[in-house]
From TrEMBL:
Gene3D superfamilies: 2.60.40.720
Boundaries of every p53 DNA-binding domain copy: 1-158
Cofactor(s) needed by this chain: Zn(2+)
Organism ancestry: Eukaryota, Metazoa, Ecdysozoa, Arthropoda, Hexapoda
Protein name (database record): p53 DNA-binding domain-containing protein
Cofactor details (free text): Binds 1 zinc ion per subunit.
Length: 240
């Protein structure tokens, strides 16, 4: 593990443990769910789903009786397959359904994972840098996920996509996202989240009687970006 890069370097099939901490005294012993979702680090790739290469996915689907959500996910819990409290999410048939591993933890503890593909796999990850996003979810989200899994998975994954999009909202490259109509829509929703946050920050600054010039410039810039992207959608939808 490199502290300098905040990056794990690990071989395929080699277990690595992550410690999850939360203040369990405030939750009265209620279990928590940790969702691990693998995403591409690069903003230009952020909308693409990380999935296993053809070769490794093919080997697993032949060798074992695994669900498609397990076969396609590059990340696995190191607990034995079929163990209670480990759930694999994601629908291969829906391009915007991302793969994640959901683990139920009854108290703050370590959990081990391993990768079942390499960065160098020629399809799948294909040498692109990846991040793992860990989200701590409470039992309410877990219960909802059980009653209507598809809607909740899509919503949660949409949230993660927005987070990835808003990492560097001002650097969204219009030319790059312009190539794909789905990409533009996702970029717009990411920018809208940033705009709402900026507007809230502005209200707070006004309340504290602080200057808002810098934040005003940001808001104007964001609005212009959103407008630009929206107009590119209109042009595509109604060709002259
Ligand atoms: Zn592979």
């Amino acid at each position: 593990y490199s502290h300098h890069l905040n990056r794990i370097y690990v071989d395929m099939l080699c277990n690595f443990s992550i410690r999850f901490n939360w203040d369990s005294s405030k939750l009265a012993g209620q279990p928590m769910y940790v969702r691990a979702t693998t995403v591409f680090s690069d903003l230009a790739q952020a909308e693409k789903r990380v999935e296993r290469c053809f070769q490794h996915a093919h080997e697993s689907s032949n060798a074992m009786n695994l669900s498609p959500a397990v076969i396609k996910n590059v990340l696995r819990s190191s607990r034995e397959m079929g163990t209670q409290d480990v759930y694999y999410c994601g629908r291969p048939d829906l391009a915007d359904s991302w793969y994640s591993v959901l683990v139920r933890l009854s108290k703050p503890t370590e959990h081990a994972y391993h990768f079942v593909c390499k960065n160098s796999c020629s399809s799948g990850i294909n040498r692109r840098a990846i991040d793992i996003i860990f989200t701590l979810e409470d039992a309410i989200v877990g219960a909802r996920a059980c009653s209507c899994p598809r809607r909740d998975i899509l919503r949660d994954e949409g949230d993660i996509k927005n987070k990835v999009k808003t990492k560097k909202p001002l650097k969204v490259d219009k030319q790059e996202t312009d190539m794909d109509i789905v990409g533009v829509r996702a970029a717009i929703s990411g920018l809208r989240v940033s705009l709402t946050m900026m507007e809230q920050a502005r209200t707070y600054k006004l309340m504290m009687q602080k200057h808002t010039e810098a934040i005003d410039r940001c808001i104007t810039h964001l609005k212009a970006l959103i407008e630009n992207l929206e107009s590119s959608l209109t042009v595509k939808a109604n060709p002259p």
